[in-house]
Amino acid sequence: MKTHSPASHPRHSFTSLVRGLAALGLVASALALGLPSASASLLPNGDFEAATRDPAWPDHWGKAKEGSVTWEEEQGNRFLRLRATDANQMILLYREITIPANTKALEVSARVRVSGLVKGPQSWFDSRIMIEVRDGDRKKLPGGKNLAIGRDTDGWETRSVKFAVTEGGSILAIMPALFRVNAGTFDLDDIVVRPIDPSEL
Predict the structure, then answer these.
(1) What is the pTM of this model?
(2) CATH number of the domain at 34-200, please?
(3) Residues 38, 30 contacting (CB under 8 angstroms)
(4) Number of other residues whose CB lies within 10 A of the CB of residue 107
C-alpha cells in the first residue's frame, strides 16, 4: 500500500507555496534596495569546504605567520583550527571582501569552539574575530566590531555581531585570531556575512 508524504497533502502544499512566496518577497525587497539576498553570505567559502586550488587547503584562505593553523575534518565537516604553540603569539588569518553599494549594516556570524584558553596579560588577549570597515584605500574607518570569545565554549556555539557600515566603507576585513594568548585552541566554521536592515541594530 502506498503512503503519502506530508508534503503531498494539499494543505502542506499550500503552506509551502505561501512560505515560498514570502521568501521571494524578501529577495525582491533586497534586490530593490540593491542588496544581495538576506540569506546569501557575502563571504565565499566561509564554511571551509571548497578546496579546488589546493586540495590540502580551503579556497580563499591564507595561512598564519605564527602558531599553528590546520584544516580539520570531523564527521565529514571541514573547519579551521587555530592553536597556540607558544605564549604571546599573534595567530591571525586575514580575509577581505567588497561591501556591496548601498549596504548600511552587516551581520557577521560564525560557529566557534574554544578549548584550553589561557588569556594573555591583557583582558582582551583572547580568541576573537576582528572585523573592520575600510575605505577603498584600505584605511580603517570608525565602526566594525570584535566577535570576542573570552573563555572556553561548551562545544560548538554560534556567535554573531551586527554593526553599521560607516559612510565611505567599501571593504570589510575579517581577521580570526588567537590574540596573544598564553595557550588555547580556536576552532572556526561557517562564517557568514550578510547585509541587514539598519533597524536590526
Answers:
(1) 0.80
(2) 2.60.120.260
(3) yes
(4) 17
79 beta partners: 72
Q: 48 with 78: CB under 8 angstroms?
A: yes
| Spatial distance between the Cα atoms of 170 and 162, rounded to a whole number of angstroms | 17
How far are the Cα atoms of 52, 67, 86, 190 from residue 45, in angstroms, in the given order? 11, 23, 29, 8
CA distance 127 to 93: 12
Distance of CA 115 to CAs 23, 78, 154, Å?
38, 18, 9
Per-residue pLDDT at 76 exceeds 60: yes
The grid cell for 144 is: 566594525
What's the confidence (pLDDT) of residue 144? 87
Looking at residue 5, its pLDDT comes to 39
Contacts of 17-26 with C-beta under 8 Å, sequence gap 24+, read: none
Place of cell 607558544: 86
- Per-residue model confidence as pLDDT tens digits over 13-55: 433 433 443 334 433 333 344 444 445 899 999 999 999 999 9
- At 38 the pLDDT is 42
